[in-house]
């Protein structure tokens, strides 16, 4: 009897300690054992399982909301350097892959969907425009140097202003034309709900990478053969314009035929004007220096008397 009482006392003591640690726990007596032994079982929240699940879900919702709030607080403002740093967060393999995609356009192969993958960058377009402007100005001056070696009568002087003209022209084209295109597509989205334009950053990225093909074209323009220069220009223009058309076609095909044809024609026309402007301005030859003809006869001084030329019969007496 004493042993049974001591065992019961220890069981009650364990139950009391467990209840002190978990106040929400419920105590139940084991009905399948004799009551004389007084075994007591503790049910760890078996009746409050529904409430526990609600508490877990509420805690997970609070955690997710807190994480979203922290992400919003960590996002820098547009006036900070960290905001624009994300636009240049791209590695070399991605840039080379996007350059390859711009050089080899294929029908049905969208540049935005296959190469940008919702991660447009400004690193590639920025350096492509800078390289194109620099190469354009340098090759334009080299063309005049080579022309002077072939024809010494051509007068050449370094034209450093071409670097400024090339930079302003290329960067204005690479930013203003995509801005106008993006604004027009946004307006057409309001007119026709099925038209879904790209973002402004994606449009700038597409135009920036499309200009890469003009860099080798400008270098090949150093060959002093006019018909070959125009052939290289037409080939580069065709590749670049085809990449733009294939990229914009999934966006404008849901619009009317007139609007789609006019938009794509304008894109190709502006690209052609850029290529022709570069050819005619930066690769024009200077005219030969005009050399003044030598004087046939020197003017006589006024103090030297002239010899009489009148006939003797008409001379005064």
TrEMBL record:
Keyword ATP-binding carried by entry: no
Membrane topology category: Multi-pass membrane protein
Segments crossing the lipid bilayer: 122-145, 165-185, 206-224, 230-251, 258-282
Residues in coiled coil: none
Biased composition (Polar residues): 25-38
GO cellular component: Golgi medial cisterna; Golgi membrane; Golgi trans cisterna; late endosome membrane; trans-Golgi network; transport vesicle
Keyword Protein transport: no
Domain of life: Eukaryota
Keyword terms: Membrane, Transmembrane, Transmembrane helix
GO molecular function: small GTPase binding
Bias-annotated ranges (Acidic residues): 51-60
Chain residue ranges for the region called Disordered: 17-69
Pfam families: Yip1
Similarity remark: Belongs to the YIP1 family.
Name of the protein this chain belongs to: Protein YIPF
Name of the gene this protein is made from: YIPF2
């Amino acid at each position: 009897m004493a042993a049974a009482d001591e065992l019961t006392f220890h069981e009650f003591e364990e139950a009391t300690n467990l209840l002190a640690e978990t106040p929400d726990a419920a105590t139940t007596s084991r009905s399948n054992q004799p009551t004389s032994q007084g075994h007591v079982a503790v049910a760890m929240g078996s009746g409050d399982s529904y409430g526990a699940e609600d508490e877990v879900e509420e805690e997970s919702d609070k955690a997710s909301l807190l994480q979203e709030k922290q992400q919003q607080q960590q996002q820098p403002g547009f006036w900070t350097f960290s905001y624009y740093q994300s636009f240049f967060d791209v590695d070399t393999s991605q840039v080379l892959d996007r350059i390859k995609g711009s050089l080899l356009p294929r029908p049905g192969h969208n540049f935005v969907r296959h190469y940008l993958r919702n991660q447009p960058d400004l690193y590639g377009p920025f350096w492509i425009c800078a390289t194109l402007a620099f190469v354009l100005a340098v090759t334009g001056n080299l063309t005049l140097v080579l022309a002077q070696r072939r024809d010494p009568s051509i007068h050449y002087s370094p034209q450093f202003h071409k670097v400024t003209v090339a930079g302003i022209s290329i960067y204005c084209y690479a930013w203003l034309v995509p801005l106008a295109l993006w604004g027009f597509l946004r307006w057409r989205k309001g007119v026709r709900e099925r038209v879904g334009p790209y973002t402004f950053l994606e449009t700038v990225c597409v135009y920036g990478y499309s200009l890469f093909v003009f860099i080798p074209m400008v270098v090949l323009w150093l060959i002093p053969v006019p018909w070959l220069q125009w052939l290289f220009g037409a080939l580069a223009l065709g590749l670049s314009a085809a990449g733009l058309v294939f990229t914009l076609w999934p966006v404008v095909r849901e619009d009317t035929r007139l609007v789609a044809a006019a938009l794509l024609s304008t894109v190709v026309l502006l690209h052609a004007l850029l290529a022709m402007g570069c050819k005619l301005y930066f690769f024009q030859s200077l005219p030969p220096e005009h050399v003044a003809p030598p004087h046939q006869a020197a003017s006589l001084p006024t103090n030297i008397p002239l010899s009489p030329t009148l006939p003797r019969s008409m001379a005064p007496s």
